[in-house]
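Cross-posted from the bioinformatics board.
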Amino acid sequence: MSSHRPTIVDVAAAAGVSKSLVSLALRDAPGVSATTRARIMAIADDLGYRSHTWARALAAGRSQVIGILLNDLHSAYHTDIVEGIERAADAAGLTTVLSHGQRDPKVLAQRLGHLQDLSVDGVIVVSALLSPDALAHAAQRGPVVVVGRTTQVADTVGAVWNNDEVGAHLAVEHLARLGHTRIAHLAGSHRPASQARRAAFHATMTALDLPAPHLVCDDTDTVIASVRAGATTAVFASNDTRAARLLGAALDAGISVPGDLGVVGYDNTELTELLRPRLTSVDQPRHEMGQRALAILTDLLGGGPARVEVVAPRLIVRDSSGPSPTP
Amino acid sequence: MSSHRPTIVDVAAAAGVSKSLVSLALRDAPGVSATTRARIMAIADDLGYRSHTWARALAAGRSQVIGILLNDLHSAYHTDIVEGIERAADAAGLTTVLSHGQRDPKVLAQRLGHLQDLSVDGVIVVSALLSPDALAHAAQRGPVVVVGRTTQVADTVGAVWNNDEVGAHLAVEHLARLGHTRIAHLAGSHRPASQARRAAFHATMTALDLPAPHLVCDDTDTVIASVRAGATTAVFASNDTRAARLLGAALDAGISVPGDLGVVGYDNTELTELLRPRLTSVDQPRHEMGQRALAILTDLLGGGPARVEVVAPRLIVRDSSGPSPTP
DNA sequence: GCAACGTTCTGGAGCGTTCCAGTTCCGTTC
DNA sequence: GAACGGAACTGGAACGCTCCAGAACGTTGC
């Protein structure tokens, strides 16, 4: 009645072979006859044997486990990326564990450390909040890939992000094509992705010859005031949550969307379908980004160089963007 | 230029003491003089030593890591619970790792197995999708606490959930007090929590002497049709997402909320503030639930019995519920 | 009939840590 | 000055596994 978790030694004893052979058999390694292997497998199963991941890792030097660190769990955006990673990891026979950092760079860095303490084989950071320094530092301990735009870092860190320039361009062009000329940008933080979207907003406005000044601010009230004053008829928001807040504020202010105001978000989260009007948004291919991140990581594990991949976004048109009101 | 991660042996060599002493010093164990301890600490720090969690776990038989399994990452509801758990875990000096099961009982069971393969000290399951059998089975391998209502299981599994009866009662009573008599229930799945809410809906309707029949269905269209027919003026939805869909459908159908239709959700997720009108909802004390789950788990680790705790929800009134339209 | 070979299997060392039973050293006490 | 006791420290076994060198055995070829 030993309540002990069975080990390969137990299996070996039951099968009348050495523990080494059990190890080989269970790992599908060559050098074990088919019949013996089958017998060992059956006995292991019978005993309820499960391999002890970390004992294995300790002995083998690899754990076949990768860590995923995400910004926070609240974000609908990050989770699809995680799914992409996990699907690819499953296919590659890797296990994943998650951790998250509550949107706080300090916590993120700490959790990244914890993850690496577990001696996972590598870490994928799904967050743009970690400084290049922190990433480079972590990369000294083990392979690191970041999903999310960063200012370019040490070439030891792999990265995947979407092309924010293209995304912003798609959004603004779409609004312009609907006849809007007074387009504002509801901007995000000062992180690289937001910066890029902001810069691309300006560039596109200029390229399309739309009349200056181009209103850019990070504050809903200012935008609403501008709409009321007739100085803005459409807004490109730097993400869906901001767009949702703007939508709420517009309805509160009696501004009809898309009648008086066209709105385009970014990230194509599930919010887009829950809000009314449904939100036009720029979609990042999140699953694909996750897959690519894992591919970069496995290459890194195989001794390859860290590379950066940039994927293309596309615009999903829904109800929040319509023709410009005739002036 | 050994790129090797430093071990206690390296630290011991550098400090000119035995590895045992280093181990003691780093763990703050007694039997080390203050000066030696300080010296060892300094040297460890210097070398960038970090303890190898799983080697430690292997030797000590405990890892000080607990696993958290969640339903899926998309759910705004679960994430606060996780935060509650993690905050408590931090305070208790435990590390956490997450995993999730994509809303699929099969995947959940598999991930639960993976988590236990990592030989974490215990697992908290934040999902109501796992069968009592699966939970009991997992509990044989190690301590398990579930957050979310389950039909009562083996007394080896700890549990926390909110009092759905009280929650449903609060919602219906609120609507009744506003003058609604024709209240429908937009029901959830057949899981225990939904069942309980449904049953409590009926019980409350009866207790309040509201006229039968009490419409219960899980389909938005039917509810909308009933509102159109004048047979329903208010809806208690089994969760916020369902309520959000109903809100969308109502607006699509030209039904004004709360004018023609009062809506109350459940879970008080962030959706409640993003939607218009803002959603009245029943709040579960999610942080508290997470904390309690961890408390139960640590008691379990200490050899205590598994217990079940039920916490009280409360109603948060917002804009989606207003006085009944005069008939 | 014997060497050479391939296949299957074994024993022991080692991964980084903890734990336990000692050992050493120093200050007290009688 | 011998005996004791406690604090500080050490060495080796153990945790469950992998890896490697080599043993055992049957086949093949000459």
